[in-house]
Amino acid sequence: MPDDTFSPSESLQRGARVVQIGVAAIVLILGLTAVWLFLRLPDANVFNDRVEQIFVENDALTAPDAIRLLEVLAQSGTAFSKVLESYRAFIFVLMLSATALLIACLFLVVALVAQNRRMQVIERKGLQVSSLVLAREQRAVILNDMEFKLTDAAMETLSVLAEARMDDDVLTGAEIEAMVSGRNAADCDEAAGATRIKRLRDALGNQMVSELLIRNIARRGYMLAIDKDVIKMN
Fold it and tell me: Considering 125, 142, 173, which residue would you say is the last residue of a domain?
């Protein structure tokens, strides 16, 4: 059988390893990409070098117009080198931004995976309840550290379920209606008890809490999916 035990420390250690490996892989990949891009970019002085080569190879260019043309080319080379340097800085900033975004996405994915694992464990084992206190006078139920205000009808339904859980009983809808209304179960309708369960779930509000707290067992009835030792009734 699969082990349903969820260890927070083990999960944190596993998540930390995944994050460390992921961050290292992201930095390595983007680092190699940045090196490749910078190596592929031409040198900032390549244009100036070509103009200088033209000066050296063409000693006959002594006319004023030719010299003026070469000076314009030299100035253009200087402008080109500055633009190329700005491109390098722009690429560097983009690579840093991409690294930060990928690392943030990695943290988000790890968090989602951990959350999904917790949800799967909860679905397999039911709601982990350490304390369930029913305060009838205040018409409130305290589930772990969450407090829910209930109507009188919802409180009566939950009290019936809690008493049945302490006796390891599973109640049908008709039996729930009978215990709440004080009538004979044979005279009660199954749908009336199901309606009380629905209203109780609506009163609890949180869909995940209500669905996991009150379990519907097929062809048997309803019960609280918690340990009976954690139930306290005031």
Answer: 125
Same domain? 146 vs 108: no
pLDDT grade for 3, boundaries at 50, 70 and 90: very low
Residue 214: burial class (beta carbons within 10 Å; 0-12, 13-18, 19+) = buried
Within a domain: 194:
yes
Residue 2 lies inside a defined structural domain of this protein: no
Q: Label residue 126 by pLDDT band (50, 70, 90).
A: low
Q: Are 176 and 157 in contact (CB under 8 A)?
A: yes
For 154, the domain range is: 132-233
What total of structural domains would you count in the chain? 2
Can you give the pTM of this predicted structure? 0.46
The residue among 1 and 161 whose pLDDT is bigger is 161
Domain membership flag for residue 184: yes
